Amino acid sequence: MTATAEQPSSTRPLLVASVVPVAAFGVVVAALLFIGFGLPGLVAGLVLAAVAVWVRIHRLTTGGRDRVLADLGAVPVDAGAHAQLVNLAESLSTTSGVPVPDLFVLDDPAANLLVVGERPERAAMVVTTGMLGALDRIRLEAVVARGFAEVRQGDLRAATIAVDAVARPATSLSRGGPGALLVRPFGGLLASAYRSIAGSDHELVIDRAAASLTRYPPGLIGALEVMERTGTAIRRPDPLSAHLWMADPGASVAGMAPRSTLDLRIEALRLL
Q1: Which helix or strand (DSSP H or E) is residue 128 part of?
Q2: Phi-psi category of 9—alpha, beta or left, where left has phi over 0 and alpha has psi -120 to 50?
Q3: How many CB atoms lie within 10 A of CB 251?
Q4: Domain boundaries, the chain
Q5: Sheet harboring 113-116: ordered strands across?
Q6: What contacts 5, CB < 8 A, 6 or more positions away?
Q7: Does domain 65-155+198-270 fall into CATH 3.30.70.270?
Q8: Distance between CA atoms of 22 and 253, rounded to whole angstroms?
Q9: Better-scored residue on pLDDT, 193 or 237
Q10: SS3 for 101?
Q11: 47 with 30: CB under 8 angstroms?
Q12: E strands, 35-83, where?
């Protein structure tokens, strides 16, 4: 059994959508400085705009993982208390060729899992206590394998950058206020970039890739069935990181691609 190949999501649309508003604002400032101070003002304004764009890109491409983890409040896994999780991750690392992610546990009754990271060697996997308590070893292996499959698929960097590049400004737009005034002219660009990080069948592709790692689709089918019964909505869902969760965490951002239902994903796995 092999997973359907899919091209990794490019970070370019995300960076463009995030940088264009900054550059546009910088050009406006440069024009005003030109009116007030002539050519020196124009040069100074363009230099400031270039610096602002550089700072924006640097922030988007570094530190996103740690900001998501801090907002979640997840804690590093206790190797003694969660030996099974650690052992499964180490075994799947060998099978997949993906470095073992930094493992974290989120105290929450929902059954869900999140993966975040700018590159494979800096990936982090967050598992809820609800997931750990609800799944047996075979099903837990299946969901951990799905986390590894997501890292190996090559889309994780784009998904992580999307948190600050488009989800945050899109949230400002939906909430209104001064921030929305700056973002509104670029709302269509943000929505398009957000949709670029996951096609309509993205979750199905990752599920198939996970099943190919364990070579046992019933394990993931059973895990998804348990998640459906237990619930996947966490207590304090953050819409900015909603797309990073294995299943709907109970929050979303306007413009986010519709998620496949658990029922649909279960049926797709049964066809393998």
Answers
A1: strand 124-128
A2: beta
A3: 17
A4: 12-61+158-195, 65-155+198-270
A5: 75-76, 102-106, 124-128, 113-116
A6: none
A7: no
A8: 21
A9: 237
A10: coil
A11: no
A12: 75-76
Token pair, residue 212, equals: 């190919």
β-pairing, 102-106 vs 124-128, is parallel
91 burial (CB, 10 Å; 0-12 / 13-18 / 19+) is middle
User: Hey, what amino acid is at 174?
Assistant: S
Q: Is pLDDT larger for residue 104 or for residue 172?
A: 104
Residue 215's CB is within 10 A of a number of other CB atoms, namely 10
CA-based Rg of the chain, rounded to a whole angstrom?
Answer: 21
Torsion, Cα 123 196 57 32, to 10 degrees, reads: -160
What percent of the residues of the chain are helix, what percent strand, and what percent coil, each to the nearest 5? Answer: 65, 5, 30
The tens digit of pLDDT for each residue in 40-73 reads: 999 999 999 999 999 988 888 889 999 999 999 9
- 3-state secondary structure at position 105: strand
| 255's tokens | 């413009």
